[in-house]
Structures are given as C-alpha cells and as structure tokens.
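Saturday, quiet lab. Running sequence design on the structure tokens for the scaffold JK sent over.
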C-alpha cells in the first residue's frame, strides 16, 4: 500500500503581513498533481491544517476544495488536528465525511483505536493521535503520574494495547527527539522549559511508521520510519534554505517499508539577499531569478538611502523584510538579535526576564508553575 504523508499546511497564514492564501492554493494543487502521478492509496495529513484555531472563511473554503479533490479520486485521507488547530472544529462532520473516505481526528477521548485498512498482504492498523498536552491525558488517567508530554503519549499508547504483530501506522503531531538529540527546527518552533514537551522516539516502537507533523523541515527522527513531512511552503526566513517536499511511503511487509521525498516547487520562493542597493537593483545581478519571490534584503550601504524600500520594490515587489548591516547599524545594535532568541520558548524568555528583573534565578518549583500556566494558556508552543 502506498501512502502520501504531508503536514503543517497552516492554511490562512500571514507571513510578515503577506497573505499566503494564493501560494497555498497553488501548492495544494501541485500536491493533487503529484497524487495523480504517483497514485497513492492513502493521504496522511499530520496536523496544523490551519494557522489559527478559528480560521477565516477563505481558509476553510480552500481546505474544503482540497479534500473535495481528494474524495473525487476515491483516495482515503486521514487528517489530525495540530497545536494550531481547534480539535473540535477539525472533528466537526467527521462521521459524515468517513462515508467519502475522509477521516478527521475526533476530540481526544483517552485512547486511540485503529482504523483497519486492507491490501493484498493483509490488514494495516492506522491510528490517529491529535495534538495533546499532559492536561488532556490526566483527566482520563487520574491515578497515573503524568508530568511531561512523553508521560502523556506513553500513557495513551500503553492503554491503547497496540498489537505489535500487525502492521501499525501512527499519525501524530508532537515534538519528537531521538535519545535527547533534538531535530532541526526553525525560529517559529519552540520547546518548553526543561524540554517538557519532548517525546522520545522510543515511545513509538510499536509502530512500523510514524507520520509526524509539527516541525517544518522534512527529516527522520532516529530510524527511517519516524518522519516529519515538513510544511509544503516556507513560512519564515529561517526556512529559506530548506527543500520542501512530501513523503511517499511504500508499505509492503513489516520489515519492508520504503520512503521517498518528492520535491515541492512553490509559486514564489522565500529567499535572502544581501549587498549594496546599486548591486541588488542591477539587472545583471538578478537575471534569471524570480523577482516575485518573497525576499529578505540586507543592505550594506554606508550612506543613508532615501526611500530604500520603495526603490527595492520597483524590482522586488514582494520584499517582506529590510535590514541594514553597516557601521552605523552595528554601532547602534540595530538588527543584532540576541543569540537563539527565536528558538526560545515563552517560558525560557520569562525565566530570563525574571533573572534580569530580580537578579536571581527561578527555582525548579517556580519553573514548574510557570510551565503549567503556559500549558493551560496554550502558550507552550
């Protein structure tokens, strides 16, 4: 059986105040073309369908169009909610859509039950685990000690009684590490204080393939069959060097699983360029490039430039960000962002702020309280 794994669509997202809906419509159409070419049996969408828990009407309409195209092709599609989604909104209408082969994750109810697929070899059990926090799991297992995300996921899997003799696939949306080694992240992907949201890959040993969402860079975690598909588009300049793709899984016997990444070419790329303005607007230097790309420009001119952004947009209409790197900006500290600030969670930033204000560190007890508060408020990620 052939599966197509994608995630983190973030439909409706705005990047630096640019509406990405046209780009998203284009890339979803490209994904449909790829599906027509490779003819998968199943499409897995591992969370963060929308960028907000209350998506716009336009975002909902675009996802509806995408699912309709999938249903027209008689493909089965499994969709889970991510941390950006409303689990209740993703679950709406799920029983009706199952009749069309579209399976939307239900609101978490304490355990996960398989949906059984069949091919020429036999049965494949497919499990859907929407994004969950420890608080979501504690209410179902009040006698269990659930402090971290790993505790929560482990508890759910143990109580779902997975039959390891069968072929099992999990679709999940969590931050997964490999023996303490963190995966590659972009600046919009944070972890909580003390790594409370980390889930070790060993927790998923009972699954033959784990289709992950949450991180935007396509990558494996430990073994080749625990994978992040990554986002289909670049959503920050920290992703500008990533090669976006979808992951295809050929699932034969338990010991015979092959994966392949198929590149995704966007309507507009996201890239960074640097130099003096005269060089950047010289046709010889931008010949052969897509001038409609989303651009982060860093100007190195020492002299002040009147209406620099206006002059640059005469050539690059989609300049998203303009910075300066010269003696004056370095002297004033402009554009000098503290190291790794974009990779720090709300809790880590609060901890540093507390230390600066009080000349003392937060103790473990206070860190635990702050972590729980951010978890309850939805501010961990």
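Result came back. Writing it out in full:
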């Amino acid at each position: 059986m052939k599966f197509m794994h994608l995630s983190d669509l973030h439909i409706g997202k705005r990047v630096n105040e640019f509406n990405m809906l046209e780009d998203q419509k284009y890339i979803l159409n490209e994904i449909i073309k790829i599906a027509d070419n490779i003819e998968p049996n199943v499409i897995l969408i591992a969370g963060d369908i929308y960028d907000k828990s209350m998506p716009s009407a336009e975002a909902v309409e675009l996802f509806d169009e995408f699912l309709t195209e999938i249903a027209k092709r008689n493909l089965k599609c499994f969709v889970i909610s991510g941390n950006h989604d409303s689990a209740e909104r993703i679950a709406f209408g799920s029983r009706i859509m199952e009749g069309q082969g579209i399976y939307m994750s239900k609101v978490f109810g304490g355990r996960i039950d398989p949906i059984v697929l069949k091919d020429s070899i036999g049965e494949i059990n497919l499990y859907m685990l929407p994004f969950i926090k420890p608080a979501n799991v504690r209410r179902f297992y009040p006698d269990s000690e659930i402090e971290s995300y790993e505790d929560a996921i482990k508890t759910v899997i143990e109580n779902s009684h997975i039959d390891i003799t069968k072929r099992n696939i999990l679709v999940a949306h969590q931050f997964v590490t490999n023996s303490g080694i963190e995966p590659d992240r972009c600046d919009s992907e944070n972890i909580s204080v003390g790594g409370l949201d980390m889930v070790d890959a060993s927790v998923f040993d009972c699954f033959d393939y784990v289709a992950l969402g949450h991180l935007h860079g396509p990558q494996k975690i430990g073994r080749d069959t625990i994978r992040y598909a990554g986002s289909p588009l670049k959503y920050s300049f920290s992703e500008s060097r990533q090669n976006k793709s979808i992951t295809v899984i050929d699932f034969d016997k338990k010991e015979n699983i092959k994966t392949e990444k198929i590149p995704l070419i966007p309507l507009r790329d996201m890239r960074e360029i640097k130099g003096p303005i005269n060089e950047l607007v010289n046709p010889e230097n931008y010949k052969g490039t897509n001038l409609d790309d989303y651009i982060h420009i860093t100007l190195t001119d020492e002299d002040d430039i009147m209406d620099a952004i206006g002059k640059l947009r005469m050539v690059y209409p989609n300049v998203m960000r303009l910075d300066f790197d010269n003696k004056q900006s370095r002297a004033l500290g402009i554009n000098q962002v503290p190291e790794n600030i974009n990779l720090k969670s709300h809790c880590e930033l609060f901890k540093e702020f507390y230390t600066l204000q009080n000349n003392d560190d937060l103790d473990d007890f206070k860190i635990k309280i702050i972590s729980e508060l951010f978890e309850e408020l939805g501010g961990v990620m």
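Notes for JK: The chain has three domains: 2-263, 270-332, 345-377. DSSP finds twelve helices and 19 strands in the chain. Ask whether to fix the surface positions before the next round.
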